[in-house]
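Field log, afternoon session.

UNIT: design team B
ACTIVITY: writing a sequence onto a fixed backbone
BACKBONE:
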């Protein structure tokens, strides 16, 4: 083919293609495409938080962590206070299910009795994140648990007594809310790690409050006058209440060896004042982690079922230096 013929043929082909596209010639059939999957953001999230109560400084900090994080991220938070009553938490969860929230974060006041309401949330396709204390329900009924290892906290407390009372002694236990994951786990870990020469001569609940810690300690001091070497408190608020009773009984800092759990500012002050020899950390600032996990659940992303908080033990020697840095 001559050069001229080649260019003529090319021109004809180009013209034909222009004419065809101008006439709306059908395009090649598109492959069938699934509708684009929506990626949710915090602004799409309604999170239900049926808080168990306001019994301690720890709890106040935990509530603030959820409220502040929700505000910062633009999450709509449905918050309620169950006043330490499981039936109030169950009603709040049912109300959240009816409102069609995206995720429920549940800090359970006690360990048992959640199966029915967790099943209701599951049936409504609303994932539940158990926060702080544990539940005994089948793990298939909730998406994840975020919080402290309460058994380890109990063990750490016992290890402090093993150091404080190397020759043994008699100690008392002011326990948290009966049946709560925190009280059950701490009591278990404590007994597992306590040296056999240290005897727990009595254990009573102070329900995690200052108001109830004080009369329990008053009764202990009357009943066991002269026989007590130490006291283990399941939280700082009960220790603060009990110290009022101990002072009123005329005892001085150091007369009794005392270990508590939480690491609140109040606990730090007790260490500075010489009453407490160690404070085992329990971190309440769980809002950011919980909301991050809730968003992953909304987007169908892989999550870790058990998220444990990294914690340590605080001592009097650093208490004054650390107190101004404490967030709760
Ligand atoms: O479940 C955590 C515990 O609950 C904290 O130790 C205590 O202060 C709170 O009331």
């Amino acid at each position: 083919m001559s050069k001229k013929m080649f260019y003529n043929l090319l021109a004809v082909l180009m013209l034909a293609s222009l004419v065809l596209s101008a006439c709306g010639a059908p395009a090649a059939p598109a492959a069938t495409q699934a509708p684009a999957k929506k990626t949710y953001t915090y602004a799409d999230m309604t999170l239900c938080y049926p808080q168990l109560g306001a019994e301690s400084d720890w709890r106040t900090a935990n509530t603030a962590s959820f409220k502040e994080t929700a505000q910062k991220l633009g999450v709509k938070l449905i918050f309620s206070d169950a006043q330490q009553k499981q039936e109030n938490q169950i009603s709040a969860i049912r109300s959240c299910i009816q409102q069609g929230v995206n995720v429920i974060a549940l800090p359970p006041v006690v360990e048992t009795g959640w199966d029915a309401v967790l099943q209701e949330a599951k049936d409504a396709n609303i994932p539940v994140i158990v926060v702080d204390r544990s539940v005994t329900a089948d793990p298939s009924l909730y998406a994840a648990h975020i919080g402290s290892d309460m058994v380890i906290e109990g063990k750490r407390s016992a290890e402090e007594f093993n150091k404080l009372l190397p020759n043994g002694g008699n100690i008392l236990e002011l326990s948290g809310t009966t049946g709560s994951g925190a009280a059950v786990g701490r009591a278990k870990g404590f007994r597992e790690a306590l040296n056999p020469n240290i005897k727990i001569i009595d254990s009573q609940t102070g329900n995690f409050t200052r108001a109830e810690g004080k009369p329990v300690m008053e009764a202990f001091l009357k009943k066991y006058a002269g026989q007590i070497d130490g006291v283990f408190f399941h939280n700082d608020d009960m220790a603060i209440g009990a110290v009022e009773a101990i002072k009123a009984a005329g005892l001085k800092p150091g007369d009794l060896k005392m270990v508590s759990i939480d690491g609140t500012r109040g606990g730090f002050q007790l260490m500075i004042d010489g009453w407490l020899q160690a404070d085992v950390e329990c971190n309440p600032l769980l809002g950011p982690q919980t909301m991050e996990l809730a968003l992953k659940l909304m987007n169908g992303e892989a999550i870790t079922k058990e998220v444990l908080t990294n914690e340590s033990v605080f001592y009097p020697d650093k208490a004054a230096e650390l107190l101004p840095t404490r967030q709760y």
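LOG NOTE: Residues 55-56, 58-59, 132-133, 182, 208, 235, 237, 261-262, 282 surround alpha-L-arabinofuranose (CB under 6 Å).
NEXT ACTIVITY: expression trials, pending approval
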